[in-house]
From TrEMBL:
GO terms for biological process: protein repair; response to oxidative stress. Residues 9-133 form the MsrB domain. Keywords: Metal-binding, Oxidoreductase, Zinc. It comes from freshwater metagenome. SUPFAM superfamilies: Mss4-like (SSF51316). It catalyses: L-methionyl-[protein] + [thioredoxin]-disulfide + H2O = L-methionyl-(R)-S-oxide-[protein] + [thioredoxin]-dithiol. It is an enzyme of class 1 (oxidoreductase). GO terms for molecular function: metal ion binding; peptide-methionine (R)-S-oxide reductase activity. Its cofactor is Zn(2+). GO terms for cellular component: cytoplasm. Its EC number is 1.8.4.12. This is peptide-methionine (R)-S-oxide reductase. InterPro entries: Met_Sox_Rdtase_MsrB (IPR028427), Met_Sox_Rdtase_MsrB_dom (IPR002579), Mss4-like_sf (IPR011057).
Length: 134
């Protein structure tokens, strides 16, 4: 289990850009097809941009065509928190970083992608940093 990171809103605002804060701390969504990692195939680990906790491996990333980076599984079940999200007239499952509880995106099930889990973790690029091997 990741060590819990707790900071005040003021601390988060000082550490994150305005867009990072909007998405990570206010559960915003970046526009589709513009994110830094939407189409990247670079090998590495995707970490939480707010706290650096490791979230996803590049080998679980796939092209879903949805406009945001998609993964079929997190690095470890303990790396993310799932929360029922009933905003915008929908029922979805929100994904947050288990370490700092920053908003990452949503997970969807049963969409028919040919992946080992039939899950699509739809994650905002601005919520992550890609850490590549040396």
């Amino acid at each position: 289990m990741a060590e819990k990171i707790t900071k005040s809103d003021e601390q988060w605002r000082n550490e994150l850009s305005a867009e990072e804060y909007r998405v990570l701390r206010e559960a915003g969504t970046e526009a589709p097809f513009i994110g830094e990692y939407t189409d990247t195939e670079t090998e590495g680990i995707y970490a939480c941009r707010a706290c650096g906790a490791e979230l996803f491996r590049s080998d679980s990333k796939f092209h879903s065509g949805c406009g945001w980076p998609s993964f079929f599984t997190p690095l470890a079940a303990e790396s993310v928190i799932e929360i029922k999200d009933m905003s915008h007239g929908m029922v979805r499952t929100e994904i947050r970083c288990a370490a700092c509880e920053s908003h990452l995106g949503h997970v969807f099930e049963g969409e028919g992608y040919k992946t080992p889990t039939d899950l699509r973790y739809c994650i905002n690029s601005v919520s992550m940093t890609l850490v590549t091997p040396n």
